[in-house]
Specification:
By secondary structure, chain A is of the alpha/beta class. Chain A is about 35% helix and about 20% strand. Chain A is built from 20 helices and 22 strands. A 7-stranded mixed sheet of chain A has the order 11-10-12-13-15-14-20, sandwiched between helices. In chain A, strands 3-4-2-5-6-7 form a 6-stranded mixed sheet, with helices on both faces. In chain A, α9 crosses α10. Chain B is α/β, with parallel strands linked by helices.
């Protein structure tokens, strides 16, 4: 790289948003920038925002695919409210994303796409590059098609392939803007397009050309640098929540000594977990893409009976289909993990958007009294530990565990400090010993109330399980009224006692104050950022994020007692708030609910909290 | 890697598999005979294939037949309606060394579990699938099933059903299944022979058992099983033998053009040489499909093993892949995986 002419400005953090047609390669562009952000030593979080159609009508607003990254030299908890830099590959992506940028943002557009036809498709009455629409912004108009063609004119490439790489030109410009080293990205090209050296060469040339273009034409007044984040010593990587979930399950499998059986059916946004685990046969990770959601979960129950670490992965509509089978797992008291990567509902809803609206389904969506453990991951990196813990709790307590993540966690990415598997907590399932003459199918551990796991094929432990009610201890089929009541109570008590094995709530902020912000699952980062900012402003605000929902942490009452007001924030109509009203009716709960398929913004949270403090 | 189990000396008896639970099927139900046959055949299967008593797993869905696991002293799961095939698959894929037996009925397999039925046939895990076909819903007390003959009056078809029924054998073969057999609950000897064949067949073995529901559909198979009518209405197939039937084996099946035809030996110069010889092992399913479709009064119902074709099982394919990946994968443990690809160090 040549020496910079432009002045370098040190900044704390930045938000960059890449937007284009769903075929423009914006997700790849974003993830390459994320990788380079990782190498630059910044902390970051990403937010992909794309339509459910693979190639929605070209040039229309509904076909816009976006990728946002928030990075900085301090801890980054959110994917960012509004962007400092927007890359818009066509008029539609500018139209769709203009409301998500700051007033003085840098906007880089492919000026050649702003022709009459595209403007009309996107619904612009006038060309926004020519009227007052973008006043206040620093607009960079780059003729990306021509520039890309120019960059690879010496290569023997067809026009279509050439234009496919124009996203790399845009990435080159952004690399220059943030003083990034692009050589790491070169090695990505070499790997990804191994079989096609021409494509490797083209991508390299285009990326470099973008970088040089920004430098040579001095399109920016200055460039930016963000110092390394003060991360603890160790080895790091970038993970999406779905990848972290898959790996957390693999770690639990290795640690427990029970190989994974995953029975699953492809469904957005959970499919990545099935795809990832299907790569890892070397760990005897057996994955079966079932004929439907029901076969996925039911085969999982069979695998659990045969001693596997049983897993099924799905999203909301799939969880509905699995309900009856989860009831069977509750009845047979076999361990299994059900991962629900939530999306906007009801019905098919918003397949690629995030929501937290499956909570009540996870808690209560089964016939009969059918309690099971319900937990929620609080971020992409945390999904690793949540998946691990879900598997540990399932096996040690002999119960299905529903782990809720969501689209923002599953597809979002974060910096992940790589743990050593040996440092993770041990997993000790209550496996029954061969020929144990005292073995009874429904005899329970006095502390946890878990029954023993008598794995099919073990000598001397033949027994029958099933969906019919069973007699306490013996496990024989029983219709006895008092026995049924006893078994219903035992199954509930078994889940309730898990509270002894989960961590207590940790308060971010003081233990007493005017306002307690309560969240669960994926909203952790954005709530924390809002609360931290208000605390810096001297406000008496604290927060807790729930990761364990059934059962709730033991200190929930104690924590809630320290505050004058409690507000529950969630991406649904108040499901957790209502659950808290049921479990802890002694408190009054305010609600902040956002159901737009989008994460909370720090600004809207602060506005709401401040209003509440001033009431 | 075929999961081989060496035959070994295991002294199993029928009593090893008898449960202490009260059997609650109706008196006279065909299920009792099937249970006895299974109890009789397990020791033989154990002997021939080296399974110990703890290696047998019996799974079921919902319906009268699906109470079966509770009446056997083996590992067992009574599942949910229609999904036993998925349970069986999960068990077999997790531990291929188990002998997995699946019990289901016509409603459980053909209606609510139809999807799983065709997919298990196609995927070919080594399980033994006993499908009790009494052509009625018994446990819910007499509604029509997907195999109830068109026009039959039941509680939910007081004017007679309006639907064309499934023929399970056609469904298995149509789904590219490799093993299909048919037996009747009145012939324990044939049941035991065929159950053993099914166990020895390495792959999904689906057996239709024509079973009588004495309460809600009594004598539905009477033409095939009746003392006087059975000789003319059942053809017991044997591999390598001509397809002869009738009280004195005086009738047979020939192929005329592209269709099967019933002939009498001695009539029109027909001799035994003209009669079709049964070969269940041909990959081509043409004749097997026609045999499965035969039904009285025009034809006898084909009994015995109609189709038995060798093919790789699902679990062998998967576990072979596991062995292969263990050799070639760069990841020896999960730590290797976590540290793979783009990582960076903070000092």
């Amino acid at each position: 790289m040549t020496t910079k002419k432009d002045k370098i400005v040190e900044i704390e953090e930045a938000v960059v948003r890449f937007a284009g047609d769903s075929g423009d390669g914006m997700q790849l562009t974003g993830s390459l920038f994320s990788d380079s952000t990782a190498f630059a030593g910044n902390d970051f979080a990403t937010f992909p925002d794309f339509p459910s159609e693979i190639r929605a009508p070209q040039g229309t607003v509904s076909g816009v695919s976006g990728f946002q990254i928030h990075f900085g030299h301090k801890d980054i908890h959110t994917t960012g409210d509004l962007a400092d830099v927007l890359v818009a590959m066509n008029p539609a992506s500018l139209k769709a994303n203009l409301r998500w940028v700051k007033k003085d943002a840098i906007i880089i557009v492919n000026s050649e796409e702003f022709n009459e036809k595209n403007l009309e498709k996107a619904g612009w009455e006038n060309n926004p590059l020519e009227d007052n629409t973008l006043v206040g912004h620093l607009l960079v108009e780059a003729p990306l098609n021509t520039l890309t063609k120019e960059a690879v004119k010496d290569l023997d490439l067809d026009n279509k392939s050439v234009l496919k790489s124009k996203n790399m030109f845009a990435l080159g410009i952004i690399f220059y803007l943030f003083n990034r080293d692009y050589t790491k990205t070169f090695s990505f090209f070499e790997n990804k397009f191994k079989k096609n050296p021409l494509v490797v060469e083209a991508n390299k040339k285009v990326l470099e050309a973008g970088y040089n273009y920004a430098e040579t034409l001095e399109v920016f007044k200055n460039t930016f640098r963000i110092q390394k984040a003060p991360l603890n010593k160790g080895r790091y990587r970038n993970v999406t929540g779905n990848l972290a979930t898959a790996w957390g399950l693999l770690a639990a499998s290795e640690r427990s000594g029970h190989h994974i059986y995953l029975g699953s059916y492809p469904i957005t946004p959970a499919t990545d977990i099935l795809q990832e685990l299907s790569k890892h046969k070397q760990f005897a990770c057996i994955t079966q893409q079932a004929e439907d959601e029901i076969a996925g979960v039911v085969s999982t129950i069979g695998s659990s009976f045969a001693g596997a670490m049983a897993v099924t992965t799905t999203s909301g509509p799939g969880l509905s289909l699995k309900s009856e089978a989860i009831g069977l797992a509750v009845m047979t008291e076999l361990p299994m993990v059900i991962v629900d990567v939530q999306r906007g509902g009801p019905s098919t809803g918003l397949p690629t958007k995030s929501e937290q609206s499956d909570l009540l389904q996870a808690l209560f969506g089964r016939n009969g009294e059918a309690p099971c453990i319900v937990m929620a991951a609080t971020g992409a990196a945390d999904a690793f530990y949540s998946a691990y813990e879900a598997a540990k709790l399932a096996m040690e307590h002999m119960t299905p565990v529903i782990l809720l993540t969501d689209g923002s966690i599953g597809n979002g990415s974060e910096v992940f400090k790589i743990p050593r598997v040996a440092d993770l907590p041990e997993i000790h399932p209550p496996v029954a010993k061969p020929n144990d003459i005292d073995y009874k199918p429904y005899k329970r551990d006095p502390k946890t109330l878990a029954r023993q796991w008598a794995i099919a094929g073990t000598p001397g432990l033949r027994h029958r399980l099933g969906g019919l009610e069973k007699e306490d201890i013996t496990g024989n089929v029983s219709q006895d009224p008092l026995n049924h009541q006893k078994m219903v109570e035992l199954r509930q008590a078994k889940v309730d006692r898990v509270a002894d094995d989960i961590p207590e709530l940790k308060i971010d902020g003081d233990t007493k104050g005017d306002l307690l912000v309560v969240g669960w699952g994926s909203t952790y980062g954005v709530l924390l950022t809002a609360v931290e900012e208000m605390r810096e402003e001297g406000k008496s605000v604290s927060m807790v994020q729930f990761k364990h929902i059934m059962p709730l942490p033991k200190n929930t009452h104690e924590v809630f007692s320290g505050f004058k007001k409690i507000i529950v924030c969630e991406n649904n109509m108040g499901q957790f708030a209502n659950y808290l009203r049921m479990k802890h009716p002694e408190f009054k709960y305010e609600q902040f609910n956002k159901v737009q398929g989008l994460p909370f913004m720090v600004s809207e949270l602060k506005t709401r909290f401040e209003a509440l403090l001033n009431e | 890697m075929e999961q081989k189990i060496e035959p070994q000396e295991v002294q199993l008896t029928k009593q090893d598999f008898e449960s202490d639970q009260m059997v609650k099927w109706c008196p006279g139900c065909g299920d009792h005979a099937i249970l006895k046959s299974v109890e009789n055949v397990f020791p033989v299967v154990g002997q021939k294939m080296g399974y110990k008593k703890e290696d047998f797993v019996v799974v079921s869905g919902i319906g009268c037949s699906s109470r079966f696991p509770y009446y056997m002293n083996t590992y067992g799961i009574h599942g949910i309606h229609g999904r036993a095939a998925a349970l069986a698959m999960g068990i077999k894929l997790t531990n291929p060394k188990l002998s997995v037996w699946m019990i289901s009925g016509d409603g459980d397999s053909m209606a609510i579990g139809g999807n799983h039925f065709i997919h298990i046939a196609r995927r070919n895990p080594d399980i033994n699938y006993l499908m009790f076909n009494n052509k009625i819903y018994g446990l819910t007390k007499g509604q029509y099933s997907p195999t109830t003959p068109k026009g039959q009056k039941t509680k939910t078809s007081p004017q007679g059903t309006f639907e064309t029924p499934f023929n399970p054998g056609e469904l298995v073969i149509g789904a590219r299944g490799k093993f299909f057999a048919r037996v009747v609950d009145t012939n324990p000897k044939l049941m035991q022979e065929v159950f053993l064949e099914a166990a020895l067949h390495h792959g999904a073995s689906i057996i239709e058992i024509l079973q009588n529901c004495v309460i809600f559909n009594n004598k539905i198979h009477a033409l095939i099983t009746g003392r006087d009518t059975k000789y003319d209405n059942q053809l017991i197939l044997e591999a390598g033998k001509p397809m002869l039937f009738g009280k004195n084996k005086e009738k047979g099946i020939i192929l005329e053009g592209t269709r099967l035809k019933v002939v009498k030996l001695g009539e029109n110069g027909i001799t035994e040489k003209d009669i079709l010889v049964h070969d269940p092992t041909t990959e081509d399913a043409g004749i097997h499909m026609m045999l499965a479709s035969m039904a009285p009064p025009e034809f006898p119902a084909a009994l015995g093993v109609i189709r038995s074709v060798k093919s790789e099982t699902l679990e062998d394919a998967i576990w072979n892949s596991v062995e292969h990946e263990k050799q070639v994968s760069p990841y020896k443990n999960v730590d290797d995986l976590l540290n793979s690809g783009n990582t960076w160090e903070i000092d």
